[in-house]
Amino acid sequence: MRREAPKSVADYAPLVFPGFMLVAFFVVPFGTMVAVSFFQRQQGGFYTPAFIFDNYERFLSAFFGGVLGFSIMLAVVVALVCVAIGFPFTWLISKASRRVQVVWLVALLSVLSLSEVIIGFAWSTLFSRTAGITNLLVWAGLMAEPRALFPGFGAVLTAMVYQALPYTVLILYPAIVRLDPTLTEAARTLGASPIRAFFNVVVPGLRNTIVATLIMVFVFALGAYLLPQILGRPQHWTLSVLITDQAIYQSNMPFAAAMAVFLVLMSLAMVGLTLLVGRKGEAA
Question: How far apart are CA 60 and CA 56, in angstroms?
Fold first, then answer.
């Protein structure tokens, strides 16, 4: 099929409603947030229009820079763990019967129906001392007494991986299902083991999909808010938590807007990188 250039104004009509939605629900709110980020905070939680860079200078301090670094590190680790678990898991699902695939996909969709609050408190119960999984370890003789596994970085990471893993599988599934099965069959015919065929044929063949999945999960984990608060200590809080703290509890809307602008710009950059990787994959 060949694309033809629009010949009249009527040809642009299908773009009117999406363009309106984009302007109304993204451009205007984001533009307002950018403007507020340059405002000056007054005593009592008020702020006046101005054009100062104090909010961005404060954001670049050591404390908030450390929070940003931790947020990025946490999002990177979540993305890597999710892809490391989700890719072989999705590959195994694609090799099962159609009925088994449907069952697994429905189970994953049911996890997506859970809110972040439910996930956080469910994992806090599992990691607790009184009703947690350590009681099973004590019963099995692997521990002397039960103990709490939260708050801590491990609890935050586990819950965030649990939350992001279904997204990872659902992103990888269409590309893995479309992969030509004759490629692995040829590798097996040439003497490669199933594991070697997986790493030498499947993984390189889906390299762009893996990179795009890593970026999308990174963007998803970058905005984590409730799970770090429920399962972590203050040093495990992400930038989203501090944005809420500055906007609601500290009544410092300009500073919160400055941090939110940086977070949105980083997310948009990652999404743009995903589109670039997708285009390169289509060109290849």
Answer: 6
